Amino acid sequence: MSEIVVFGAGGRAGRAVTAEARARGHLVTAVVRDPEKHVGIEADGIRVLRGDIRDPRAVAGASGGHAAAVHAVSPFSGPEQGFDGLDPEFFVRAADALLRGLAEARVPRLVVVGLFANLETPGGGLVMDDPELFPPQIRPFALAHRAGLERLRAARTPVDWLVLTPPALLEADAPRTGRYRTGGEAVPETGPAHLSYADLAVALLDEIDAPRHHRAQVSVFD
């Protein structure tokens, strides 16, 4: 049993990761921006904290004594939200704060939930650059996400990070099968892929319990 800190524990991915971690016997520190909006998270073995993933002091304070951290925070809920309030530096600031805060707290492992738009197409470009694969109206969010990935890649850090990138179709109500496949930087060649949030959490916890990929972006799919 170890302790894991989950940033963004109130979202779908964060909740799935928290549930999977508890099922494996891990203790979880669930970090959310507004605990009052997530009163259902706290339970036996789960401690809820208020925190901002862009604040290195908050990251360090929440992470001390933990074996690993998960970044499942997203400032964007969908196209209907618009981009007036989107900080294009959000994921860069989160990456900086995580790497600094986790290093200060001596947390060795960071697993980040990636974005499908950052994978490569068979032609060598990025999904976000292909309007048939990715809605152009969401491109500002994809670019912000990409900047965060590049920040991780450029960092000189003791933190062993991994970006685990699911397919575009993530199924909230699909059951946990415990099965998944991992790839590289490209979209799966087997055609349209999907994955349940529960199985994304399985893949993510597997990378915490027995790390196989390091300092890279890796696709995960059914």
What does this structure look like?
The chain is built from five helices and ten strands; from the N terminus they run βαββαβαβαββββαβ. The longest helix is centred in the middle third of the chain and has 16 residues. By secondary structure, the chain is α/β, with parallel strands linked by helices. The chain has a single domain, classed as NAD(P)-binding Rossmann-like Domain (Rossmann fold), CATH 3.40.50.
Gist of the model:
The radius of gyration is 16 Å and the shape is globular. The protein has helices at 12-23, 56-63, 90-105, 139-154, 197-209, and strands at 3-7, 27-32, 46-50, 68-71, 109-113, 160-165, 169-171, 181-182, 194-196, 217-221.
Mean pLDDT: 94
What Rg, in angstroms, do the CA atoms define?
Answer: 16 Å
Using the coordinates above, name the CATH class: Alpha Beta
Give the tally of structural domains: 1
SSE order, one letter for each helix or strand? EHEEHEHEHEEEEHE
- Sheet with the most strands? 8 strands, mixed
> In terms of structural class, how would the helical and strand content be classed?
alpha/beta
Number of strands: 10
CATH third-level topology: Rossmann fold
According to CATH, the homologous superfamily is NAD(P)-binding Rossmann-like Domain
Spatial order of the strands in the main sheet? 3-2-1-4-5-6-10-8
DSSP helix count? Answer: 5
Helix content: 25-40%
CATH architecture: 3-Layer(aba) Sandwich
**How far do the termini sit from each other?**
28 Å
Question: Any descriptors?
Answer:
222 residues; alpha/beta; Rossmann fold; two-stranded parallel sheet
